[in-house]
Amino acid sequence: MNPTQPAHPHFFTGNFAPVHEEHDVPALAVTGRVPEELSGALYRVGPNPRHAPRDDNYHWFSGDGMVHAFFIENGQVAYRNRWARTPKWELEHRAGRALFGSFGNPATSDPIARGNNSGTANTNVVWHGRRLFALEESHQPFELDSLTLESRGHQSFGGQLTARCTAHPKVDAETGELHFFAYSPEGPGTSGMLYGVMDPNCKVTRLEAFDAPYASMAHDFMLTRKHVLFPVMPLTTSVERAMRGKPLLAWETGKRTHVGVMRRDQPTGTMRWFEAQACHVFHVMNAWDDGDTVVAYVMQAEVAPGLPDADGRPGNPDAMAARLCRWTFDLAGSASGFQREYLDDLVAEFPRIDDRYAGLRNRYGFYTCHATPRPRDDSESVLYDSLARFDFETGQRDIHTLPAGDVVSEPVFVPRSAAASEGDGWLLAVVWRDKEQLSDLLILDAMDLGAGPLALAHLPHRVPFGFHGNWRSSAPSFSVTHPMNADTASGSCRC
Fold it and tell me: Which of 125, 173, 179 is nearest to 410 (CA)?
């Protein structure tokens, strides 16, 4: 079923448009050579609306989640995709139409939907405790089978996690603990926040509440070996504003950016708040302790990219451009401000590192960027044509740029081995091919991006633009553990 085009065609045309089939492809065609040592699964997720939106305020961020899995083994790549069959997806599937307004807005939702779970599970995919979870920050983690991608539902972890959970939890590489937070756990427009810790077996061992300066969409946070930091920025949520026909989620001019900093071994009541002029960060690259300071690498913009102001007016594209920036917090001093310094002039997003260095000082960072200028009125300026590796010791970049018109997803780093030095491994990313209207899995040598692809695994269809993904080591391919019959030997799909 193909949806009719909504009022915001930017988010429903080209590779923003959803796909309407679920595929099983046991062996993708490969150009080049997939490294034999590369063995595991790359999981990615993004918005893929099952039905045409019901309101004029549809936004890319609010589409139903679809998970894409690439199983890599013995130099071969298999693929599978499935919708995350959330309660929202199931309810609308039975109705045969969209029932929820964008972001679950009650003002534009069908009465049938009001009071029901509006989760989309569309933002990130995390492997923890030998379990796979699709995440978005307005609801609990949504579990899927790691091989079949069969939906297992929202999880409360023994009744401990009953509200929201961030889409960007952080794993402590030393302890294996998963640190997470939630904004507005009492609902949109409320200023409370939660901080929690989950052990390596998915048992919640800590959950504490605290108050933020105001109700903000806090998409990401920072974790060091000693501290945890919570940015609160003027991207605010307001139900009252939404009921007046204005955006539920909007940039609120006049507010400042605040960052709460606390020691991990102390309660949330000891948190110290720093502040600066208004700025916005969707994604953090990394943070670490440096004596009496905490340093973080973030992708900073002056206003929130892609979202309107409180009156529904679009923002300034120049101010929405994010770039690599260093934040420094002086914990020994008494000042409430913190330092911000841009490190790179390229418009960039989706920062990643070698995750073995999470919470430690990292030398290398990876991200998507624009290596070639784009018109400021380009509606697809949020899309990126290049992958970069930044060396923080030398300040040098290494870049791989795609052919004109092609777009690359967030990169995911995979180390060559557990003992490999930092950055020694591969970058994996999904690429949209504009001319062919298809997608590829791109595999690069992370220390030599300029050399071009080691391998490209070619999909017979496209993967719509999405957000985040992660790697699971040594995950067997379904084509090996679940042999397919003759009808599916060359790939199958179901609607």
Answer: 125
- The DSSP annotation for 421-489 comes to PTT-EEEEEEEEETTTTEEEEEEEETT-GGG--SEEEEPSS------EEEEEETPPPHHHHS---GGGT
pLDDT bracket for residue 83 (50, 70, 90): very high
d(CA 363, CA 421): 11
Cα–Cα dist 77/42, whole Å: 10
Gap between the Cα atoms of 402 and 456, Å rounded: 13
Q: E strands along 307-424, which residues? A: 323-330, 339-342, 348-352, 364-369, 386-391, 396-401, 407-408, 412-415
- Determine the Cα–Cα distance for residues 431 and 273; give it in Å rounded to an integer: 40
Q: Can you tell me which residue has the tokens 């490190």?
A: 343
User: Would you state the structure tokens that stand for residue 318, as one six-digit string?
Assistant: 């120049």
Rounded to two decimals, the pTM is 0.93
pLDDT, one tens digit per residue, over 311-351 is 999 988 889 999 999 999 999 999 999 999 999 999 999 99
| pLDDT(84) > 50 | yes
Confidence of residue 9 (pLDDT cuts 50, 70, 90): low
Give the gyration radius of the chain's Cα atoms: 21
- When pLDDT is averaged across residues 186-213 and rounded to a whole number, the result is 96
Burial letters 145-155, b for 16+ CB under 10 A, else e = ebbebebeebb
Q: Bridge partners of 472?
A: 41
SS3 62: helix
pLDDT at 489 over 50: no
Euclidean distance between CA atoms 264 and 225, whole angstroms:
8
Dig out the tokens for 224 from the structure: 């060091």
Give the torsion through C-alpha atoms of 105, 102, 93, 8, to 10 deg. Answer: 150
pLDDT of residue 2: 38
Q: Which residues, 6 or more positions from 112, have their beta carbon under 8 angstroms from its beta carbon?
A: 91, 95, 99
Structure token pair of residue 86: 């959330």
Question: Is the model's pLDDT at 481 over the cut of 70?
Answer: no
Alpha carbons 15 and 17: distance in angstroms, whole number: 5
